[in-house]
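Reproducibility note. Readers wishing to regenerate the assembly model reported in the main text can use the exact inputs given here. Chain order matters: entities are listed in the order in which they were concatenated for prediction.
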Amino acid sequence: MFGNLMKKKFTIILVTMFCVLSFCATAMAESIPYETYTYWQYDDSKKVVSMKSCFDYVKTIYGSSLGIEAFKNPSGLYVKNGKIYVSDTENNRIVEIHSGGTLSRVITECYSETQALSLKEPGEVFVTDTGDIFICDTGNARVIVCDDNLQIKKIIEKPESDIIPEGFEFKPISVLVDSRGYIYVLSDGCYYGALLFDKNYEFDCFYGANDTEGSVLDAFNKIKDLIFGSNEKKSASVRTLPYQFADFAINNDFIYTVTRNTKYLSNASTGQIRKLNSGGSNILRSIKNGKLVTSNSYKFQDEGYYTGEINSAIIIKDLPTDFISMSVDSDGYIYALDYSTGKIFVYDSNCNYMTIFGGGIGFGVQDGTFVTPVSISVDGEKIYVLDQMNLSVTVFEKNDFGEMYFGAQKLTLNGEHNEAREVWRNVLKEDANIQLSYTGIAQAYYAEEDYESACEFAQLGNNQDLYAKALQETRNGQISKLFKNLVPVLAVLIVVIYILYRKVFKGKIRLKMNKKVKIALGSLLHPFINFERIKYSNEGSVMIASVILAIYFVSSVLRHTCTAFSFQVFDAEEYSVMMTLVSSLGIVILWCVVNWLICTLMSGKGTFKQIFIATSYCMMPLIVKEFLYVALSYVLVPSQQMVLTLIEAFCLIYALFMICVSFMKIHEYNFFQFFKSVVVCILGMILLVFIIFLLLTLAQQSYSFLSVIFNEIFNRR
Amino acid sequence: MKKYFLLIISLLLLGSAVGCEQKDSGDLNFEQLDNHIISSDVLAENDSFSLYWDSENKCVLFKEKTTGYIWSSVPQSYYESGAHGGRASVVMESPIIIEYIDPETGLTAEAFAYTSVYANGSISTQVIEDGIEVIYGFDDYEISIPVQYTLQEDSLRVSIEPKEITTGKFDLYSISVSPYMCSIMNNASEDSYLFVPSGSGALIYSDERAEGKRVYSEEVYGRDYSREVKFDTTNEKKINLPVFGVKNDDRGIIGVIDSGDGQALIEAEAGDKDVGYSSVYVTYFYKGHDAVEITASNEGKSLSKKQADGFADNSLMSVTYYPLEKGKSSYVDMAHKYYEVVSTDNEKASIETVTANIDFYGGIEVYKNFLGVSYDTLTALTSFDDVSNIIQEIAEQTDTPISANLVGFGKDGVSKKLAADGIGVAKVYGDSQDLQNLIKKCQDSGITLYRDFDIANYSKTSNGVSTKWNSAKNVLGTRAYQYIIDPYLRSEQDGEVYYLVTHEKVLSLFDKVVSRVKKDNISGVSLSSFADITYSDYTENVGYARADIKNMTSQILNTAKENNLSVMLSNANGYAAIASDIICNTPLSSSKQNIFDKEVPFYQIAFHGCTVMTGESLNTSDDMQKTFLKCMDTGISLQFSVIEKYTKEAGFNTDYDFYAMKYDECKEDMISYINESKEFLNRVYDSKIVARTEIENGVYKTDYSNGISIIVNYKDTSVTTVYGEIGAEDYIIVKEEGQ
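Running the prediction on these inputs yields the following structure tokens for the assembly.
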């Protein structure tokens, strides 16, 4: 207990020291010449914000700066305890570099008792805590295990096993070893996952293969081909294979894998990063709508696509974030290297974006940018990136702000909220754009049972879940207060009103209401009678129907814009009133038009006017639903969502019931005829929407065609 | 109906046919030259220099009489080394290298004088006053270029009159002039280097590296904003000053691009083993140009280079080389020489000290919503009252001269919607009385108050500047669209565009600005964007019009002076910096290209003591202490950026670092840094920097002409020097006796 307390205090002192010293003892490192940013995440949305840089560019190491021949097509990088291992593939060597950037040694061969084995096109290296070096000797299809003096202990070659498929080519490109001595080998072109060897170097199994993705349509096609397909077609059918890992890393015996998302080869746009347990299952979790869910559906990438250029002549568009390599530090922060842009994405263990920096997009001529980044490795506070085209290793180091920020999040993730709060305050002082700092402070207040402050900061950090939890706690107190004070006051008020009504006005107050308004409102409670009067006595009003539709539209807008924060984060910039217009009034109008067209053919007796009036009147329960939802969102908390769902369901069913009654009356249908007409109407609506889209697309294409002709003529002047 | 249809089709076909024509017939004026080479002789001379023509090697020699040292487009040591032949001869013995546009592909290719003129072309020479004109005929490409070499009082001028260039089948794209005039042998000592003015300035060593040669190329004054840019992969500091140079042990030479700087590139090549020399030189674009998408497919788009038609107003391409005094050839001496050259007509009487400048950011436009309808509305981040209170607090606690600049206090906040920010002030910041109170408070406290106007960019018609009629045109003759590049994805994302005010309209717009500032009784005007960006305007078919910007700037500064207004410019280009009262946001670093070996504060050294300068904003920099040290190192004032109220919407704004500007969060640092620096800055503000030496890696000593020196330790460990121990990331000030 005392030990834990001391540890906590030590952490606080350390982090506080960073805060205090942030302006007086920064490392001698250059600031980086590109944007550093992160994302705010909320309500399934991501919003990009600038932020202070967390990592400084330190230096670039070239072969020439080490006094040796330049690197040639280097492909792998591994760093441990300050020692950098560059797999200089085409030079058939591993270059070992001291942390200061000076040459330690060049490894071109390893030694057995009888002979020296030369390396051929080596892949990545791994060094165990005991100092054993595992070298992927890719060109020789083997993994060499040797000690620090390069004396060979074991050579791992293609295993003999029934599990290994026929024709399998063993091309080890990366290797990891866990604390139990289990060896994970990544073989180029292997879709079955990593090859797992036990501590006796015996092949065990394939480990952690990616899942294949398939849609219902794929399954349907497959079944169809199986049943009806010819033999030629069956043999020519493409097998869906899982994407192979691009790279993997290890932390606390958990294996982290990364899968590429290139424009042309694969399209793994979600779940690119995984954390595998010993069974090979993904246990990396991200927070979605306040709940921890597996990272399989999480988009580890920028919101948008990049544009690149080749030789100043060809523009490549729509390049996605494409992680080619990854590393994990001792605190569990995940560092992923984007091949498309040369950016480094850093995530915490809950997949929150910590920071994104770097760049170059294939033109990295500036310090800290890249042309062809292929490998990343993290060692302590330093990040190392290998640039294959620039033939260099770039070193970044976490700066004081980065220390403070990452330290604060670590405290929060460890549940040390109180200790984290002051650090977060200091983070905010330097950078008010850090969403995690608002959440961290809110969590600290929540843990301290200061729910109002928790609500305030949760709202500042757009954290609905935490806000709702804190709000619920606040409400518990408020409701008991409410019952204590408000209920007696309300009771007295009701009695006073009743007495006034009965004694003073003697029950003579009567609302004078227009007959048509009465019919409209009455249709809500007595649909049979009132829709009959609309049909036969012509007592419906187009104006009232229009007003109801307008109110329906307004209520829909209010639902989107005025719902309480705990249920919805409203973004004025993103919100489109046109969408609401289409989804409310648009559908009603479409329904009226199609219903009129269809029912004319199906012996319906209703006129367009009657259809419009009836449909509009039927929207009244939905208006009630929207207003109630907005009002109750301020009273209830998300855990009481069920109440809102029930109200919504009731109103919707009632509206459907009204539609049923009204259209049976108006068209003089029985229920079966009504049902038939509705089905046909829905199909008609789909068809009409399709035609509208077709026309719009045609118009757009025509416009593009004409503009291309115009530009061609104009630009060729 | 059918007739009209046929008529339209005929017109379209006619247009296409005309469009397919490769070149304007007016350009087809190339005539092959008669080879005529005069014999070697002295062409001109004065007390210090003489100019020779070497007919054997077909190059001009520029000789220092006192020492006998020769500068030439072909380095003398190259001839003496006897290492001729191969690529070295092709590159080094070419006093001119051109790029032409292949009419078939639309792409550019290089041609060297050595192969395309001497071997397969023609050359003609004629003596002119104080020099020689050499016409290089690239016959294979039907291009001839007359270059004049003339001896000046203390320099050699190399110039090309664009009107005299003749072209035929091929279009000329660019001309590199005397590429090895400023050169050093590879693997020269560390005391020899190439200087390029990227950002604050940078040095390139000539060592040959295993990775191969290093190449540098940047446009003077940054990119031409009239060109269409939909993506931008880098975040570079531009070249602000049209100068470059080389130091070769105790000798040095600088090249000052005195004309045609708006269409120039500064290029350098270092460590080329095949050539054996490293050099820095100027390349001129012949005409305005842009890349045009000519084909489209799903996978990519081809680009072609399009040049502007006609160049009636094209300015002379001229670079003047100034040899430096022997033993005084460092980048500090280059900076002094540069200032001496450019300041001849603009000498200032005196300057006033300012310890710090504070940019106050007014407001941003945020989306609001009424019944689902989103609309923009201006929200104040700082009001006039806030500025008053902050200024008062800082003035009371620092007691030193400062200046304040109101940025984004117009009708559109910091957005680029309205030309000159709508000129008037928006009411969300306070009423006119509040503004007058602020002005009075500034006057009482001795604070110079500026108001910033963006007179270059806009996206909505306002104040008589129409988006249709008053926006600058690009090389294609269409409106020069400025796409908003997403700073994170580095490409245009949402299709939003803004425009550039035509050169013609800028002056009248500035007149309105002056009237408003005078009316409000504000003491100075700040033009943050105008001196920072330069752009062509092909509205009147004037050809490459970026050169106009110099004249416009001169007129603008004169107008301000006539109205007794101080002028503040931000990150100003050389032509503007020389005449401004205060230059803010001067670059503290280079563009950090990996070819650079060292960054140097050339910009600050050149103008120090002549103009008040501030560095980059401390509180928004990645490392506040380091930015502070850089300001102290070069004796320039501090810069801060401040808002009173931070909102989430401000945080989401991608154009400004509002997240680090909240006054309450940074005021302690601001006051502390101002107090720490005020004594030193107030003593050196009007002194020249006479020397700057690197005592050891990361420790620099800067000497001022008044005898004060500062030694700055950028390292994270303390160091011991002969001047005493200096703490990590700290400095000491050393004064001569009597100071």
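We highlight two features of this model. Chain B touches chain A through 78 residues (CB under 8 Å). The radius of gyration of chain B is 27 Å.
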